[in-house]
Design goal:
Elements lengths: L11 E5 L4 H12 L3 E6 L2 H15 L3 E5 L3 H6 L3
Parallel strand pairs: 1-2, 2-3
Length: about 80
């Protein structure tokens, strides 16, 4: 699951816009090198699906913080 030169095991990555596009690709790449995920997106269904997929396929912990207002998601970065 981890790359020999890049290991994020034991770390948590917070990704905004995680349900689709670049955010989804970044989430998957981080999970593949061992990071647990906190997925933030306004697309609740997409974020929950990605969280489920990464838990099942990669065996990592993944939590979706989805369907919240933009201000709630921006608050994660303050």
């Amino acid at each position: 699951m981890s790359h020999p030169l890049f290991d994020l095991s034991g770390r948590v990555a917070l990704v905004s816009g995680a349900a689709q596009g670049i955010g989804r690709a970044i989430s998957l790449a981080l999970a593949e090198v061992g990071a647990d995920l906190m997925l933030a997106d306004l697309n609740e269904e997409g974020a929950n699906l990605l969280a489920l997929q990464t838990r099942q396929q990669l065996g990592i912990q993944s939590l979706a913080f989805a369907g919240q207002s933009e201000q709630s998601i921006l608050g994660l970065f303050r």
